[in-house]
Amino acid sequence: MRHYVAEKPYCYYYKTIKTVIMELALYQPDIAPNVGTLLRLGACLDVAVNIIEPCGFPFGSKDLRRSVMDYADFATVIRHSSWNAFKTSKINQRFILLTTKSSMPYTEFEFRPDDILLLGQESAGVPDNVHQEVDARVTIPMQKGMRSVNIAVAAAMVVGESLRQTNHFPVHQPSTEAK
Known about the structure:
By secondary structure, this protein is an alpha/beta fold. The protein contains five helices and eight strands, in the order βββαβαβαββαβα.
């Protein structure tokens, strides 16, 4: 992956940034394979992925590369040195936190095309100050007694709904590969 320094405190861009519609933001991610899966999701759906550091693993680790596979060159990855660096780089966009600590089902929330969907750490979510600074919190309704779904699965569900609501799925191009 190539990267460029875009600001200080640092913010690395892994691909030339175009007009971004929907974005994902991962707060101090701690499981490399999930990040790789989310980078692949972002590449396939044309959704930028923000990484708010520090990560709980070396960025570019073997597990990350294995899960992102050959989609890395197609992913828009923006790395931020901290929550504050991330916040100051995103002006006039809403931060929508996916959390188990909300009563608002994501299917009843009205998404906007330029929302940033924020996901916390698998192990701990986000700290209270981040909870207080977001514009909205949404949750995935689950069976009683269940704690949470995998972060990559949660992101896929909510990104899909937000793209559906805003009519911003990429134009479908059928595969030319044999079935």
